[in-house]
Amino acid sequence: MLAAGTLAACALPVQQASHAAAPVPGIAAPPPVHDPLPPAPQARNVTVTDRDCLIVTLYYEAGGEGAKGLAAVGHVVLNRLDNRPPDTTICDVIYEKGQFGWTRKVPRKSIPGVIGTTQRWQNAAVIADAVLSGTIGDPTDGAHSFYSILQYGKRTPKWARKLTRTAQIGNHVFLR
Q: Which stretch is the leader sequence (predicted)?
């Protein structure tokens, strides 16, 4: 993936581009390309606490899934956030009752004991930062929900039956 300014640095200035090649008689020039790439997603301004909430969610929900699976779960959180009132935080979304399985199983007081202690945690932190900065796009195509096939097997959970499947990444099925 190219950095945001890389493509612009490769482009010719407008005045040079108009003198770059003489027209060929009988062949129409192609239309100018003004904006070849969609704008990069905006980075999100979040608090340290919200960043930590996202990291811990990636750690517990998708820690063994690899970069794409971690990013997918991160985007589910952000997709949910985008559908909440403006003052809603990432932590608010994550700790909504019944939304993420790990919040029912892991006491908050035990979280400091795992922060930064493993490669799995470091991977979750790197991907969380990339998702928040807009460096990694949404591989779920706008999903706001997911479930684990390790938990449900080939059965679709009752709550997911009326949703549209958007992707399967690793052991998770993503829906909206």
A: 1-20
Type and span of the H or E element at 125: helix 119-133
Q: What distance in Å separates the CA atoms of residue 72 and residue 58, rounded to the nearest whole number?
A: 9
What are 11-67's pLDDT values in tens digits? 333 343 344 445 556 666 555 545 444 444 667 778 998 999 999 999 999 999 999
User: Which tokens in the block code for residue 111?
Assistant: 């979280």
pLDDT tier, 1 (very low <50, low <70, confident <90, very high otherwise): very low
Which single residue is written with the structure tokens 């640095």?
Answer: 9
SS3 content of the chain, % helix, strand, coil (to 5): 45, 5, 50
Task: Indicate the pairing of strand 165-169 with strand 172-175.
Answer: antiparallel
Reported pTM? 0.73
Under 8 Å between Cβ of 64 and 127: no
Q: Is 91 in a helix, a strand, or coil?
A: helix
- CA contacts within 13 A on the Cβ side of 37: 12
Element (H, E) at 174: strand 172-175
Q: Alpha-carbon distance 54 to 52, whole Å?
A: 5
